[in-house]
Amino acid sequence: xxxxxxxxxxxxxxxxxxxxxxxxxxxxxxxxxxxxxxxxxxxxxxxxxxxxxxxxxxxxxxxxxxxxxxxxxxxxxxxxxxxxxxxxxxxxxxxxxxxxxxxxxxxxxxxxxxxxxxxxxxxxxxxxxxxxxxxxxxxxxxxxxxxxxxxxxxxxxxxxxxxx
Length: 164
Known about the structure:
Blueprint: H1 12-19, H2 27-42, H3 48-55, H4 59-71, E1 76-80, E2 83-87, H5 89-92, H6 103-112, H7 118-130, H8 133-145, H9 151-163
Antiparallel strand pairs: 1-2
Helix pairs in contact: 1-2, 3-4, 6-8, 8-9
């Protein structure tokens, strides 16, 4: 796979600016992606709190933007120890996903009645790597039925089901 965007001579933020329209990025999404890229380049700790402080956007809006970008495969949030790692490879590749191709995320947000946080999205992505979408949605329905809508509860349901 050609990862041209990782070459030292590539100015990713200029590329983002030139392609924001083609990528259908909102100004806020562009701002957050640019800030994440800058912080990754400087190897600075990045979180919704730090991005909120720099951008002036509320943390709740930052989490919504994370959700939007993750659903489109533009952003991948990985949990590393007690910190988050933001990977933007999907922005530069031809494999972007439209929100309707990630139904589990939409189902979770619908059941939870809100946009998932970056941590919850990261946990959902991890679950999708371990379990089938059908099993994940079944666990979500169980959690909803017992009014225990939390990622921890859903993870326990999935682990319990697969231990048998």
